[in-house]
Prior knowledge:
- The chain has helices spanning 14-22, 26-35, 72-76, 78-90, 100-105, 107-125, and strands at 46-51, 54-60, 65-70, 94-99.
- The longest helix is centred in the last third of the chain and has 19 residues, at 107-125.
- Strand 1 (46-51) and strand 2 (54-60) form a beta hairpin.
- By secondary structure, the protein is of the alpha+beta class.
- The model has no long low-confidence stretch (mean pLDDT 91).
- The protein is built from 6 helices and 4 strands; from the N terminus they run H-H-E-E-E-H-H-E-H-H.
Amino acid sequence: MPERRILPYNPMLKTLARQLRTHGTLSEILLWQQLRGKKMLGFDFDRQKPVDDYIVDFFCKDLSLAIEIDGESHREKYHQDSQRQVRLEQLGVCFLRFPDRMVKQDMGNVLRCIQNWIEQHASSRKV
């Protein structure tokens, strides 16, 4: 297996990431219950993971896949979220974004979307 690419991260964000994990939103907790423990096709996801100068909601390092849940706070931060996503995509990170409401009300489709993405990209993304 090829050597895993290491993404940079700001160590100053570790404390904030820990706090965000402790005070997660309902949708983050619900999705985490479905991703943790390699439940998604055997892939390991981290929650509130520092990558570069940002923290992503969920991250699979083997796939370089970030999963973001866009809640109310993201409406005011659209420009910042876009800049962050562009920067992380430059580092090779792919994104899946889901509205908070969808995670709460339609988890089956959220999980199918994640599973489909992994099935389509796993062989070419695994590093």
